[in-house]
Amino acid sequence: MGVMLPDQEAKELLHLAKENNRMLKDMRRDAFIGGVMHFVWLIVVFVVVPYFTWLWLQPYLEQMTAAYAQAQGQSDQLNQAVESLKNAGSGFDLQGLIDRFTGGGSN
């Protein structure tokens, strides 16, 4: 780069400044688009994926809940039956019942 005249130097500086401004503008645009894409990615990860996971798991969870409720109801019925046997146990002859089913008393 030899000796530049002031006019040529000013033109070169103007060209470099325009190129620098264009690069800075592109960098700002890329940073903005990157921020928007990051936000969209966060929405996908924290909203869309859990929503579709819930839609996929919901029938299975409902079946599990229904099975649990049914088991709980059967457990309650069993507890009631045990309590009624305990309450009726005072007038209940278990040995006599066993004898009837085994074919008689002490033969």
What's the number of helices?
2
What global shape is seen?
rod-shaped
Oligomeric assembly: single chain
**Strand portion, in percent?**
under 5%
Number of strands: 0
Cα-based radius of gyration, to the nearest Å: 43 Å
The largest sheet, given as strand count, sense and whether it forms a barrel, is:
none
Would you give an account of this structure?
The chain is built from two helices and no strands. The N and C termini lie far apart (129 Å). It has helices spanning 6-88, 94-102. The protein is mainly α and 107 residues long. The protein has one domain. The longest helix has 83 residues, at 6-88. It is 86% helix and 0% strand.
Explain the layout of strands and helices.
Elements lengths: L5 H83 L5 H9 L5
Question: What distinguishing features does this structure have?
Answer:
107 residues, mainly alpha, 2 helices, 86% helix
Structure in a nutshell:
The protein has helices spanning 6-88, 94-102. The chain is mainly α and 107 residues long. The longest helix is centred in the middle third of the chain and has 83 residues, at 6-88.
